[in-house]
Amino acid sequence: MAPAVPDRTTPEQASEFFAPTYLQVVESRPAAYPTGEPESRGGRRLLVAVVAAAAVVVVVVLAGAAVLIVNVLNERTATLPPTAGEPAPVPVPTASFEPPAALRLRDDSTSIRLTWVDPSGGVVPFVVAGGRAGQPLGAMATLDPGRTSWTVNGLNPRVDYCFTVLAVYSTEQYATSTQVCTSREPRPSPS
């Protein structure tokens, strides 16, 4: 501790009071990885995180395109006049792109198998849309190019369902098949 400075300081007292204080300087270095991991692991983790984020973005874009297509499909279905008995087919866009042809279903009570003809020769992916009869259809599956069948399981055997398949030529160009529906006999209710 420095001595107290008297009211009248002599030069010797002043030099003692204002003497420089030496501090110990400690050099700062980054600590080594506590687990002994090499520094390249941090770069690998960053790369994995970036790749995962990119994959999520691709999935979100594809899901958005499927939702857009189904919304357009539902708008067109809503404008069709209702008919008794057989549901009206969904109109096909008037583009030069061909829709999936010969859409058929095989009803196995709790599962339905859809089959169709690929108009693109295995080039374009497909979106299968479906739902309960009389309600808007929703995207159920996105299928790789070349697939011409799909099975949906876990259905209620007492409910009718409708389906359509869209050939996706691009995010703005697609062609929709006709709509097919089950025609299940109503079961008598237990008395």
From TrEMBL:
Domain Fibronectin type-III: 99-188
Protein keywords: Carbohydrate metabolism, Glycosidase, Hydrolase, Membrane, Polysaccharide degradation, Transmembrane, Transmembrane helix
TM region positions: 46-73
CDD domains: FN3
Pfam family, one: fn3
Protein's name in the database: Fibronectin type III domain-containing protein
